[in-house]
Amino acid sequence: MKRCRFSFACPVLAGIFLSIPLAVIASEPKLETKIAVNEEVHFTAISPDGKIAGAMKGNKIGIWSIADAHQIQMIELGAERPVFFDFLDNGTNLMVGLLNGKIQLHDAQTGKVLRSLDNGAPPFVVRVSKDGKLLAAAGGDREVHLWDLATGKMAHRLALELGDAMDLAFSPDGRMLAGSSEDTNIYVWDTNTGAVKNAVRDLSLTTFGLAFAPEGKWLFAGSGDYAIHVIDAGSGKVTRNFPAQKVPVIALAMAPDGKSIVAVYRDANAPFGNTPILLWSTESGEVLKKNDSPELKANGGGFLSDGRMVYSTMNGKELQVWSLR
Amino acid sequence: MPRCHLTRRELIEKCAALGVVVTATTLPISAIARIWDKSEVHHATPPNAFGPFYKKHSPQGRELRMAGDTGLPLTVTGRVLDTRGEVLENARVEVWHADHFGKYDIEGYRFRAQIPLEGKGAYSFDSVMPGHYPDRVCQHVHFLVSAPGHKTLVTQLYFATDPVFEGDPDKNFTRDPLLKSRELVRPVVLTGDPKTMHAAVNFELCLERL
Predict the structure, then answer these.
(1) A93 lies in which domain range?
(2) Nearest to B135 among A141, A225, A271 (CB)
(3) Pairwise CB contact (< 8 Å): B134 & A183
(4) A272: confidence class by pLDDT, cuts 50, 70, 90
(5) pTM score, two decimals?
(6) Kind and range of the H or E element at A323?
(7) Over the stretch A281-299, which tens digit does the pLDDT of each residue have?
(8) A286 at the B interface (CB within 8 A)?
């Protein structure tokens, strides 16, 4: 498992794969663009409108047009190493988490810093609620920080018992925040009060990917025990388990209609290994599609607003963006 | 009647509260107590990252090494204390680490255990020197240590013999970005001839009081 902080795998991965494309398994992918990034990158993001792609390159984040591979911007972060980034507002803005604890909002076209929050600890995982009002960030040892974006103030410090946050997910209505911890527990907080609503302590290994179903009742947890667990967010009880595969789940993404969920897998002891992808029916718990090519090493992607699904891979020092309809 | 443990600081403060102690300085009693108490303060073991490979419900035991295991035999010993130097006989010590090849056992509990204390806060376990996990710089053993009334300690043990340090951990310990404290790199005593070589490490675990 790789976390960005170790250059180790995965909060970065959790971020990366948060919205891995469903259709990668559904049909033959179409190569949209090839971007010369001149080095291997392990963390990329694609804007929801499908027009731009970003990639972390050391202390820089490059942004390219997917249509013609033209470089739009190379954001220089000085001495500060980025540990997380993602597009916001349909690709207008870029959210960047820095090792020094800052969370910055950049204009994706100009690179200009529009806003900065001092998280006080490296934000290896950052999520924004669907309505854009709340931001949650890993807050270092045993904490998650919940920010009110209207005021720019930290609304709550949410305690983990041990370890750091591995992934975070807001419920669709923003009233709940789920967080998985290195201590293997999953916590569900009330975002208004900051109180713990439920703690899931039944899992023996760490959860690397979290995703709420659209109605907010079910929380899906992709675990180091190779399985997906379905949790009743209201009670904190694990109600169903999708069958364990051969390697840990490192990320999950819920389809917009909630009927299916994509899980990305990777061998815990091969942090640079391939990333099998399985599409599960959320209703039946059966595998609908599967892509376990030994060559597949997806490093980012997501559902686009027009319904396409895209993902990126590396081919040497070239970033390739693929799409599917 | 339960035995009453008071530090010098607590004793002074209680005596002051009862009027038994009168000071001739303008310092508050708590400050005087802190100064007097300083001589018995132990340094708390530095915390270190928890990591993503913890697995609940590890079995109890001291023998993590099994016949046929590849790797340099390793014995780790130490005591669990608090910052006053008092042994914590009710402490719980849990360890986990990668095997000789740098791989963690996800499906089972190899190289994972809750270590029973041996009295007077002492612990020991036999294992093998962990290998290098592919995406970590240093060999390491994870520790989770808890005791009633004390802050739970999450830390890692590192080895001065790790080739990454090139024989100079003082200079090179920062090569692992996760390793923030030189104190966590412990000397390794190697005994035996090349065919029967054995590594021994002492790692004292000192917990802060709540």
Answers:
(1) 4-324
(2) A271
(3) no
(4) confident
(5) 0.85
(6) strand A318-324
(7) 999 999 988 878 888 887 8
(8) no
pLDDT at A324: 61
**What CATH number has the domain bearing residue A310?**
2.130.10.10
For residue A93, give the nearest of A135, A139, A122 by alpha carbon. A135
Number of domains in chain B: 2
Please return the burial class of B91, using the count of CB atoms within 10 Å of its CB with bins 0-12, 13-18 and 19+.
buried
From A250, which residue of chain B is nearest by alpha-carbon distance?
Answer: B52
Give yes or no: residues B173 and B96 share one domain: yes
Same domain, B33 and B80: no
Q: Please check whether residue B22 lies inside any domain of the structure.
A: yes
- Give B24's DSSP letter: S
The two structure tokens encoding residue A106: 């950049």
Q: Are B114 and B12 members of one domain? A: no
The verdict on residue B17 lying in a domain is yes
Instruction: For residues A14 and A16, give the distance between their C-alpha atoms in angstroms, rounded to a whole number.
Output: 5
Instruction: Render pLDDT for B82-134 as a digit per residue (tens, 0 to 9).
Output: 999 999 999 999 999 999 999 999 999 999 999 999 989 999 999 999 999 98
Would B173 be classed as within a structural domain?
A: yes
Which chain B positions have a beta carbon within 8 Å of A2's beta carbon?
Answer: 135
B85, B140: one domain: yes
Do B33 and B119 share a domain, yes or no? no
Percentage of the residues of chain B whose pLDDT score is greater than 90: 75
Residue B3 domain-assigned? no
A&B contacts, CB < 8 Å: 70
Q: Is the same domain home to B29 and B87? A: no
Cα distances from A150 to residues A87, A133, A154, in angstroms, run 19, 6, 11
- Give pLDDT tens digits for A74-94: 999 888 889 999 998 888 999
ipTM above 0.90, yes or no: no
Closest by CA to A102, choosing from A147, A57, A162, is A147
pLDDT tens-digit map of A15-66:
333 334 444 444 567 788 899 888 777 788 888 888 888 988 888 999 999 8
Nearest Cα residue in chain B from A167: B52
Looking at the fold, whether B13 and B79 belong to one and the same domain comes out as: no
Contacts of A268 in chain B (CB under 8 A): 52-53, 104, 106
How does strand B112-115 pair with strand B122-128? unpaired
Long-range pairs for A73-76: beta carbons < 8 A, 24 or more residues apart: A73/A108, A73/A109, A73/A110, A73/A111, A74/A111, A75/A106, A75/A111, A76/A111
Which pLDDT value is given to residue B34? 54
- Least CB-CB distance to B135: which of A9, A163, A204? A9
- Counting the structural domains of chain A, the total is 1
Asked whether B205 and B78 are in contact (CB, 8 A), the reply is yes
If you average pLDDT over residues A119-148, what whole number do you get?
Answer: 92
Strand duo A165-170 + A287-291: pairing: unpaired
Containing structural domain, residue B28: 8-40
